[in-house]
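Checklist before submission:
- one chain only
- standard amino acids only
- sequence pasted in full

Submission:
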Amino acid sequence: MLALAGCCAVAITAGAVLVLITPPVGNAEAIARREAGRHHAAFPGPPVPARFAAALVATEDHRFYSEPGVDPFAIARVLLAHLAGRGDQGGATLYQQLAKLLYTPGRAGLPVEVEQVVLGIKLKFSYPAAQILRMYADVVYFGNGYYGLRQASCGYFGRPPGRLSWPQAALLAGLVQAPTAYDPLVHPGLARAREEHVIGRLVATGVLSTRQAAAALAVPVSRLTAAAGGCRAP
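Returned file contents:
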């Protein structure tokens, strides 16, 4: 009991120190605006449409609306994978991913990942979920030189985000993990495989029925990107 109490005290103290030494996140919007400006993307961009938000959350962080900025189950899975020698299985929440985009770009390593966890928790309790999704969508890279959801939606499909179909939303949500590898204009086969994964996650989380999923996957990538090149109207 004493050992357990000591471990808890150490963990609480370490957590408090990490909260104090990591930067505050009250300037997250200002940083997001600066990052969007660097890539000629509008900030704030258009509201995140429901289809893209659902596809992104289902694929990247299905506990997004209930977790405290960090997913303990995902962290445990990653630790077990490392112990089994299988490498990183992914475990960063959207809050942690946004922290990486805004506060630790280009940095790597365990201390940086710990910092991202703490910053992710701070972001969770500083901004509503809709605002987190909007900042994320405004600064994340979608490949092919497109930064932010509007650039990507117009560039790949020739339509603004609010008019995305389910398969188009799924394609974009799948890009954030590896935007160059899954570029639908350069690697349509890989993009299709990734789209299938995202649609599968939407079915698994109850967002789409199997019939809706089949209808979405019946549309070939070439048809989805037929109007690629930019939106005609703002």
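Reviewer check: Residues 2-21 form the longest helix (20 residues).
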